[in-house]
């Protein structure tokens, strides 16, 4: 009995250790955000940037359109992964509800809503829905990491092709994979098996392409706001920023998002003050978008939010 209990507790302990590490990184990024805010926040400068954007209604329309298309691509990728057992509407509602909840609650429970949305009609089991969300999240991180690495090679080729840098990256990556396998072996093995089954097929290639296109579309937000950026730089900055949200501790990643984007923008040659203002603007746009679609969803596909927040996403009740 003791051995069984010990075997059951080890994966949980490993996941708790990883969560603690992520929380420490999140607190560190928030501390940097407060420092950046103290040094770079200027009401007059931010107001000027906002006025410049407001005078370009077609740019705002383009931002809304490209950000919306990004979610359409992700919805279709999810539909493909589940072999068309959910509709585009269900997939899109799940993704947008998840976006809305993650921008309202400091708890990372948007995926619980996403899962519940597609299991409402009983066409997909809870286990299948949860598994699909985990795999697609891993694919998101894989694509973001790929964009991040490719962008670094394109932007700083002379630095990154240095042998010592390559060896250091390989060593860090190997240590992280080893720790992941050591701390949560069953979880790591299961996800790797699911990834292999998903990726090495024609459908898997299509899913990867759709996810890539979705993140490219999302990069238009920072590309249009930070005009001096090239599109390659915008894709890289967006990828690094979104990947950094694994350390989110606040609703919508307030603080974490701005810190990572500011540092990424500085890395491509932007002044700190401009980088900070642009990070606020791009994040502000995403907040407005998420709240806007959230209100629309509550009218079209209402959900009982009180039980959701009280139970932290473990059980979601739908209005009849």
TrEMBL record:
Q: Which keywords annotate this record?
A: Antibiotic resistance, Cell membrane, Lipid metabolism, Membrane, Transferase, Transmembrane, Transmembrane helix
Q: Name one Pfam family in it.
A: LPG_synthase_TM
UniProt catalytic activity: L-lysyl-tRNA(Lys) + a 1,2-diacyl-sn-glycero-3-phospho-(1'-sn-glycerol) = a 1,2-diacyl-sn-glycero-3-phospho-1'-(3'-O-L-lysyl)-sn-glycerol + tRNA(Lys)
Where is the chain membrane-spanning?
20-38, 58-78, 134-153, 159-181, 202-223, 280-301
What broad class of enzyme is this?
Answer: transferase
This chain's function reads: Catalyzes the transfer of a lysyl group from L-lysyl-tRNA(Lys) to membrane-bound phosphatidylglycerol (PG), which produces lysylphosphatidylglycerol (LPG), a major component of the bacterial membrane with a positive net charge. LPG synthesis contributes to bacterial virulence as it is involved in the resistance mechanism against cationic antimicrobial peptides (CAMP) produces by the host's immune system (defensins, cathelicidins) and by the competing microorganisms.
By sequence similarity, the record places it as follows:
Belongs to the LPG synthase family.
What protein name applies here? Phosphatidylglycerol lysyltransferase
Please give the organism.
Bacillus bruguierae
- The coding gene here is mprF
